[in-house]
Amino acid sequence: MMQGLPHYRSSRLIGQLDIARLAADLQVSDKAIYKWLSDGAVPGRRVHQLLALEGASLSATTLLQFVTR
Question: Strand pairing of 67-68 and 42-43?
């Protein structure tokens, strides 16, 4: 999933997501993003938000494997 979010790469940590920026843009807590990453799952209600992120090259098909209810 990180490859599909190039605008959310950390400027300090190479290859890492800027969790704070992603959380702010999705209007969720940092803790929520960390949970999604550790679980390898994204709530279905967040799919449209992820697809609409600036510079996102994610597709609905790609995200489906990570969607939970």
Answer: parallel
Alpha-carbon span 47 to 50, nearest angstrom: 5
The rounded distance, in Å, linking the Cα atoms of 59 and 11 is 24
pTM of this prediction?
0.75
Q: Is the pLDDT of residue 13 over 60?
A: no
- Return d(Cα 37, Cα 28) in angstroms, integer: 14
Closest CA to 64 of 33, 32, 41: 41
Residue 10 corresponds to which tokens in the numbers above? 């950390």
The amino acid sitting at 19 is I
pLDDT-based confidence at residue 14 (cuts at 50, 70, 90): low
